[in-house]
Amino acid sequence: MTSEAGPMGPMGSDILHVDMDAFFAAVTLLGRPELRGQPVIIGGGPRGVVLSATYEARAYGVHSAMPLARARRLCPSALVLPPERDRYQEVSRRVMAVLRDVTPLVAPLSVDEAFLDVSGARRLFGTPVEIARMIRARVLADEGLTCSVGVAPTMFVAKIASTRCKPDGLLVVPPGDVLAFLHPLPTSALWGVGRATEAALDRLGLRTIGDIADCPLLTLRHALGDAAAQHLHALAHGRDERAVDPDTTEVSVSAEHTLSVDVAEADQLARELLRLSGQVARRLRARGRATRTVGIKIRFADFTTVTRARTLREPTDVSQEIYRTALALFREAGIAGRAVRLVGVRAANLTEAGATGHQLAIDERPAAWSQLDRATDAAGHRFGAGAVAPASLLPRQPPPPRAPKPHNP
Amino acid sequence: MRFRVERDEFTEAVAWTARSLPSRTATAAQQQVLTGLLLDASGPGLVVAAFDYEVAAQAKLEATISEEGRALAPGKMLAEITKQLPAAPVEVWTEGNGLVIACGNARFTLRTMPVEEYPALPPLPPITGYIEGGAFGAAVSQVAVAAGRDDTLPVLTGVRLEIEGDVLTLAATDRYRLAVRTLKWRPESPDAAGVALIPARTLLDTARSLSGGSVEVAIALGTGPSGEALAGFAGNGRQTTTRLVDGQFPPYRKLLPDSCPLIAAVEKAPLLEAVKRVALVAPKTAPVKLAFTEDHLELEAGSNGGEAQASETLPSTYSGPDLAVAFNPAYLQDALNAIDSDQVEFGFASADDAEVAAKKPAILTGKGAGEGEAPDYRYLLMPIQLNG
Prior knowledge:
The structure holds two protein chains of two kinds.
Chain A: E1 2-3, E2 15-20, H1 23-30, E3 40-44, E4 49-53, H2 55-58, H3 68-74, E5 79-81, H4 85-102, E6 106-110, E7 113-117, H5 122-125, H6 128-143, E8 147-152, H7 155-164, E9 170-172, H8 178-182, H9 195-203, H10 209-214, H11 217-224, H12 226-236, E10 252-263, H13 266-287, E11 289-300, E12 305-316, H14 319-332, E13 340-352, E14 358-359, H15 369-383
Chain B: E1 2-5, H1 7-18, E2 36-41, E3 46-51, E4 55-61, E5 64-67, E6 69-74, H2 75-84, E7 90-95, E8 98-103, E9 106-111, E10 129-132, H3 133-144, E11 158-164, E12 167-173, E13 177-184, E14 186-187, E15 193-199, H4 200-209, E16 216-223, E17 229-235, E18 238-243, E19 262-267, H5 268-279, E20 288-293, E21 296-302, E22 309-315, E23 323-327, H6 329-338, E24 343-348, H7 354-359, E25 362-366, E26 377-381, E27 384-385
Antiparallel strand pairs in B: 1-5, 1-7, 2-3, 2-6, 3-4, 4-18, 7-8, 8-9, 10-14, 10-16, 11-12, 11-15, 12-13, 13-26, 16-17, 17-18, 19-24, 20-21, 20-23, 21-22, 24-25, 25-26
Helix pairs in contact in B: 1-2, 3-4, 5-6
Organism (chain B): Pseudofrankia asymbiotica
Family (chain B): Belongs to the beta sliding clamp family.
Domain DNA polymerase III beta sliding clamp central (chain B): 135-250
């Protein structure tokens, strides 16, 4: 399927999302040409899930991340082959090199997909549409592989466009058509809408992206939390302020811990959040990054999971700030008293640390937490991680002495 | 019900009240009547009203009433229709379950909503005093800019209005800046006193709509029919009552010193232009740095290693230690827009320790207050502490 704009291409649709078609399966088939046209599934590994499948297998309802057993039931005739990770990496490197020939502004999302900002490449290579065609032709000629390309003014629309034109397609969404393109699509087409969010939206009667756009922000907030509501609302209106940044391949830093026994006591869970917040903040500081969006993940004893996230008014790498946000999210989630199995803290929306400074508030003294963190990090370097830690993370009971202490009179 | 009104007056009254209609989708089914605009021709004159249980807006206008009565019309639709009416007198009447609007050769019939289900509008509390609309509108604009917009801190989304005899004091803060304005008014009683925390957006909307011409605005603080605290504003045939914001406004007076030990004065208009220019390179909440040296002010934004950098130098009246302080450019622009003076003065907390001065709040005021006289508008701005 190919739908294209005129020869000049639309002004302002400068973002390309390049997505290899059934990448693992297609690469494997390069070495097994006799299997072409047959349903093939790449899978295996300890958890036995589908990693990739040819379009012939997908026709039976097989898709990636599905348990292998289920895929076999859906498509008994499919041949299941083990993944060849080294070859995938190698081909991926060459494909990314093709993309980097066009522009340095390439942000790989994974081995088989990447965003490109081609606004600066027009002079050299022509309109974004022409560039997209050139990339598809080169990948096919050099590697014998097909890819699908979405061309749009923003990253998330480009990604949706590439998904909608798969396989072996090119879909251009000019700026003026973004809303007309988005609004009829189901909510699940939006980035960040998984099954749980889709169900929450469905309960509000919101089935299309257009429904989200028309829904008052307040209603969304109640159903999804602040950060997710803001995010989806902006996307539904076609707004996505992220730029293709080759440096932000690391999109988040997170730490999670499965408790040795299920815990319902709020104080103990708060201490766990404190410890994880400290870990996340330390990793951010080690990388010179700061986070604007702090999230928590709570998995209950029955394996149901809730996540909550909040965007801060300014980026931070301060342990205490991340902890304070995580704790607030935990309290607002209204899950007190339930037995928890796993706790996680996530820092996303990363930026360069130290770029912005800290806005002081009228009811705040210049914070010392940041200095405390630097001192803790320094002590950790000298004496090992955990040399200095918040007092509430010390063991509650002193460990039993190994030998009775000699008693000095 | 049947009445005849001037087209423009009717259109304005409907458009003004329609702004207080609750948004359609946010309204629960049992509150459907609130999406209607009330047309009350029980006389004398016609009252158009909207109410969302928080804010009630009523506009009164002259009308020739030939048959008294009340009707509830779909609000958004009525507002859309009146906007497009031709320039001719408007005749409005009820006909069964319909409301007919005839104007020139145009004729509309709207299905009415059950007017008997419409809640009683809160009456205006007893009037506390009067103020000239233009002055009130300007003062509210100066202060409301500092109010918080974060619904998780509701107290800060209000403007605190305090009455002490013939002095009104308005204050608002979002924790990062604090704007305070004092102005004279005419209280009904010389020892009038009261405090109300009024939703900033409602107050700003109301004050602006009453600021035209030489409108005398009546301010009324009191309680509504079910004992809830209310503030009312009336003038020019328009009347708004609003529920107050619950909670305790932060004690702010102690944050405002009687005088500042170190003052820098800068021409306001050139400074505002310069801030706008250098802020172009400061992403979102990134700071603009102000470096004060003897008689000069250098503005700087962006970073050397970053994407872009900008700087600009202006003359200033300053004699103190070299002082570098960073502010959020949007907050700084808000202050400069709000200050009604050719010159702006930055008051700092220390005359000899530049580091202290760069961490403590700066007090921005206009020039012109006499010796020993506190300026009537003060904007306290918290600096941004730079890392490293």
